[in-house]
Write a structure and sequence with these properties.
The protein is α/β, with parallel strands linked by helices and 435 residues long. It folds into two domains: 259 residues, 3-Layer(aba) Sandwich (Rossmann fold), CATH 3.40.50.2000; 157 residues, 3-Layer(aba) Sandwich (Rossmann fold), CATH 3.40.50.2000. The protein is built from 17 helices and 15 strands. Strands 3-2-1-4-5-8-9 form a seven-stranded parallel β-sheet, with helices on both faces. The protein has a six-stranded parallel β-sheet with strand order 12-11-10-13-14-15, with helices on both faces. Strands 6-7 form a two-stranded antiparallel ribbon. The radius of gyration is 21 Å and the shape is globular.
C-alpha cells in the first residue's frame, strides 16, 4: 500500500483542504499519515488516519494568536505583516516541521509528502537529491504569489509592452521589500540542512517542489506567462460537505428581500470593527436580510440590527444558495465557495493573502474590491447596493460557477500524484483540465 504523508500548517485555511485530500486518498486505498498541530488530533483520528503531532513553534492554535504571536495584531497589514508571518508564523516552524517529517521519513516507507504551500519544513527535505527522498508535492491554498512577467503584484495583469516593463519593476520592488523574509527563511533552512534558498522565497515556494498543485482553475487566476513546469491547476477545493450547523430559521428567509451574507473569516476576526460591525451598521437601514457569522470569534460586543442575524458558525453550503451578495474579508476558500455557487462578492481584506484574493475578485468582474481591510459602513453599503443593482456582477459570478463545473479537485489531485507514486513525472497541466 502506497504511503502518503499529508503535512498541514495548523490553520483552518491550510488544514481543511489538506484534510480533504487526505480523506480522499485514504478512500482510494492509500495509507495516510497526517502531520499537523494538536488542535486537529481528534479530527484526524476520527477519520481513521494516522496522526503525528507537530511540536514546539510548529504547534500553535491561531484562535489564540495573541498568545502565540502577541506582536502580530500591532503590525501594519500588507508587506510588513506578510514579512512577519513568513518569519515568525511560518519560518520559525521550519525546524520542528522538518525534524518531525525527517523522523517519519527515516523510519517509514514514505512514497509522497504532500504539504500546504506554507508548510516550509519541506524545504530542507527538498534540498536532498531526489534519489535520497520521497517525492514532494506542494499545494496552493492561496492565490499565486510567485513573480510573473505578465503580472504586477500591485496592479494586476498587463502584457502590453509598457505593462511588462512596469510588471518587472514592481516584481523587483516586492522581492526587495520581502528580502528580509527570504533571508530569515533561508537561515532557518540552512540551520536544518546546510543549504540556503537560491532566489526569492515566493518563487522558491512554487518552483522547488517536484509537483505544485494549485487549488483553483485558471479562470480565477491572473493570465500568466511561463509558469514553472511543475504547476498543475486541479480546481477549487470545495468541500463536498461541511460540519457547521444549518439553523432552522434558514428556510423561513423572506424570498422577496435579498440575503447579504457577511463573514470576517476564522483567523482575522479578533476585531469585528474591521468588517463585521461596519457591515451590520451600513446595511441596517437597507431592504435586505443580513446573515453574519463570527467564525468562532468573540462577538459579545457586536451590535446586531433588526434586519440581521449573527451566528457563531454557519454552513456555507446551506446559506450560499440563498445569498445575493457575499461580503467577505477575502479568504481564498470562502471566496471560491461563493463563486462556485454563482454569488457575487464585496471583498475587503488587508491581511495575509486577502488583498491578492480581493484583487482577483475585481479582475474577474465577480465583485468589488474595497481595497482596504477596514471599510466604512458607507463603503460597504454603497458596494452592496452596486452589486445588487448592476447585473453584470451576478452574471460574471455565474459564469465563474460554470467555469468551475467539471473540476473535481480531489480526483484531479489523485490523478496528478499517481505518476509520482509510480516513480514517473507529473501529469501535464493541459491534461488535467476537467479530467
Amino acid at each position: 500500500m502506497k504511503h502518503v504523508v499529508i503535512a498541514a500548517t495548523p490553520v483552518p485555511g491550510h488544514f481543511n483542504p489538506m484534510m480533504a485530500v487526505a480523506e480522499h486518498l485514504a478512500a482510494n486505498g492509500y495509507r495516510i499519515t497526517v502531520l499537523t498541530g494538536e488542535i486537529y488530533r481528534d479530527r484526524v483520528k476520527a477519520a481513521g488516519l494516522g496522526y503525528v503531532p507537530l511540536a514546539g513553534a510548529a504547534n500553535y492554535d491561531m484562535r489564540y494568536q495573541e498568545l502565540h504571536f502577541p506582536e502580530r495584531s500591532s503590525i501594519e497589514p500588507g508587506l510588513p505583516q506578510i514579512t512577519y508571518d513568513m518569519q515568525r508564523v511560518f519560518g520559525d516552524a521550519i525546524p520542528e516541521q522538518y525534524a518531525t517529517l525527517k523522523r517519519l521519513v527515516d523510519v517509514e516507507d514514505v512514497d509522497v509528502v504532500m504539504a500546504d504551500l506554507l508548510f516550509m519544513g519541506i524545504f530542507p527535505l527538498l534540498m536532498a537529491s531526489r534519489a535520497e527522498r520521497p517525492a514532494v508535492v506542494s499545494c496552493g491554498i492561496v492565490p499565486f504569489m510567485c513573480r510573473n512577467a505578465a503580472v504586477s503584484p500591485f496592479t494586476g495583469p498587463d502584457s502590453s509592452p509598457e505593462g511588462l516593463l512596469r510588471n518587472a519593476e514592481h516584481n523587483a520592488q516586492i522581492a526587495a521589500a520581502l528580502q528580509p523574509a527570504t533571508d530569515y527563511v533561508s537561515g532557518r533552512i540552512e540551520a536544518c540542512c546546510g543549504r540556503r534558498l537560491d532566489t526569492f522565497l515566493f518563487d522558491e515556494l512554487y518552483a522547488r517542489p517536484d509537483l505544485f498543485l494549485q487549488f483553483t482553475t485558471s479562470a480565477f487566476e491572473f493570465p500568466m506567462r511561463e509558469l514553472p513546469g511543475n504547476v498543475v491547476f486541479v480546481g477549487p477545493m470545495i468541500p463536498k460537505h461541511d460540519d457547521e450547523k444549518t439553523p432552522p430559521w434558514i428556510e423561513s428567509l423572506d424570498p422577496a428581500r435579498p440575503v447579504v451574507f457577511v463573514t470576517q473569516g476564522t483567523i482575522a476576526n479578533y476585531d469585528f470593527n474591521q468588517l463585521l460591525q461596519p457591515a451590520l451598521d451600513g446595511l441596517a437601514g437597507e431592504p435586505v436580510q443580513v446573515i453574519a457569522t463570527a467564525g468562532g470569534g468573540d462577538a459579545s460586543g457586536v451590535r446586531v440590527p433588526a434586519n440581521a442575524r449573527l451566528e457563531d458558525y454557519l454552513s456555507y453550503a446551506a446559506i450560499l444558495p440563498k445569498t445575493a451578495v457575499f461580503v467577505t474579508n477575502g479568504g481564498y476558500n470562502g471566496v471560491q465557495m461563493a463563486l462556485r455557487a454563482g454569488v457575487p462578492l464585496v471583498s475587503a481584506g488587508a491581511s495575509e493573502d486577502k488583498p491578492f484574493v480581493s484583487a482577483r475578485v475585481a479582475w474577474s468582474g465577480c465583485g468589488i474590491d474595497l481595497k482596504t481591510g477596514t471599510p466604512t459602513a458607507e463603503q460597504i453599503r454603497d458596494a452592496v447596493r452596486t452589486v445588487l443593482a448592476e447585473s453584470s456582477y451576478r452574471q460574471k459570478a455565474q459564469a465563474m460557477s460554470r467555469a468551475y463545473e467539471g473540476w473535481d479537485a480531489l480526483q484531479n489531485t489523485l490523478l496528478a500524484i499517481e505518476p509520482l507514486l509510480e516513480g514517473g513525472i507529473a501529469v501535464e497541466p493541459e491534461e488535467m483540465a476537467n479530467a
